[in-house]
Amino acid sequence: MCARLGSADLPVDVGWLIHHVRPTADGAEMRSRFWMGGPHVAVRHGNLLADSLVRPIAARQLPDPRDLLVHCAQEMNHLAGLLPELHARFG
Is the Cβ–Cβ distance between 33 and 18 less than 8 Å? Predict the structure, then answer.
């Protein structure tokens, strides 16, 4: 799964994330990778004026990597409790 990381309030994206899921003997394993800042910061819809004004500010508003680590751990823990039941029910 691949997605853009961005603001829900402003038309600015600050990076990319990829969740790579692979089967294991016990079920599945997911590894997440994030690319943020630098060339990955962009104003949506390619507005060049907005891009030159907003991009430097947005680049300094990146999420704290520790917050992403906590988010991923919480999300995976939640899914680990939910998905086995869904799989048993729906296959």
Answer: yes
Query: Which tops the pLDDT comparison, 86 or 9?
Result: 86
Confidence of residue 49 (pLDDT cuts 50, 70, 90): low
What's the chain's length in residues?
A: 91
CA 91/CA 83 separation, integer angstroms: 11
Give pTM, 2 decimals: 0.64
Query: Could you tell me the two tokens for 20?
Result: 């790579």
Supply angle C-alpha 56, 62, 68, rounded to 5.
Answer: 165
The sign of the torsion formed by the CA atoms of 35, 37, 39, 40 equals positive
pLDDT at 66 over 80: yes
Nearest CA to 35 out of 16, 20, 55, 18 is that of 16
